Amino acid sequence: MLHVADLTCQILKNVSFALEEGKNLTILGNNGSGKTTLARALCHLIPSESVFWEGKKIGDIAHHLRSQTINYVPTSLEIYDEYLSVTDYLDLNFFESSNPQMREEILGVMEIEHLRDSPCQRLSSGESSLLLIAGAILHRAAYTILDEPTANLDQAKKVKIYRLLKSGSYFQNKIIITHDLNLAYKLGYDILYLEEGEVRFFGSCSDFFDPTQLEGCFGSAVQNIGGNFVVNYDEVR
Q1: What Gene3D superfamilies does this protein map onto (predicted)?
Q2: Which stretches of the chain drop beneath a pLDDT of 50?
Q3: Which of 11, 22, 153, 224 sits in a 20 to 30 Å window from 49, CA-based?
Q4: Domain holding 209: CATH number?
Q5: pLDDT at site 228
Q6: Do the strands 70-73 and 143-147 form a parallel or antiparallel pair, or are they unpaired?
Q7: Domain span at residue 209?
Q8: How many domains are there within the chain?
């Protein structure tokens, strides 16, 4: 179980929640609410004494074991080696020796097999996002945090990633950071909603998208129209 107890760091204030094995989570919140800060604290990229895995402080777990426990996938791919290819990058994500068969399978799943020999620095933002997700699949951590996994993708690729996340075939446990209310609703994961660094809501997807709860978080700026959530920009506060 992943457990956070009174986490306070940078902009976060007394954040507490527990995520049981087999449960997935979507983290929502406005820009600057602390979503990415929380994700980085969960992985100990921001050191904290308030994050626990199976009762043990995440910072006390050896580096190589911690990387197998929880993996943070950022919004953008930053590669400084101009010669590092897509294949090279994917091979770096294996804990043990590379597995060409699995690598090729994931390249196919993500529909980027034609990029296998391309330098990572030359990829588009959308291609980079797909490569990050492919690497996360190969990494096979107990928990994978995906920060805005659909932000740089066209509509067809967004649907592909949604289906991949929904299937449960490629990740053990998932934590998704997103601004996309439709994605959060369709995934159906538990919801943690941050507001100015504090937990405004933590509970089931159905409870969060209850009209009363939704209005409490967004006022009249978000409307549910046939199961699709539409922003009324005239009402954004």
Answers
A1: P-loop containing nucleotide triphosphate hydrolases
A2: none
A3: 22
A4: 3.40.50.300
A5: 83
A6: parallel
A7: 2-235
A8: 1
pLDDT of residue 93: 83
The span from the CA of 232 to the CA of 56, in Å, is 45
Q: Residue 223 is encoded by which pair of tokens?
A: 């409307």
* Tens digits of residue pLDDT in 72-115: 999 988 888 888 999 999 988 876 656 788 889 999 999 999 99
Q: Do residues 72 and 136 touch, judged by C-beta distance below 8 A?
A: no
Which residue stretches of the chain are H helix?
35-42, 63-69, 86-91, 100-109, 125-139, 155-167, 181-187, 205-208, 211-218
Note the pTM of the prediction, 2 decimals. 0.91
Residue type, 102: M
Cα 129 to Cα 65: distance, rounded to the nearest angstrom? 25
Three-state SS at 199: strand
pLDDT at position 220 is 82
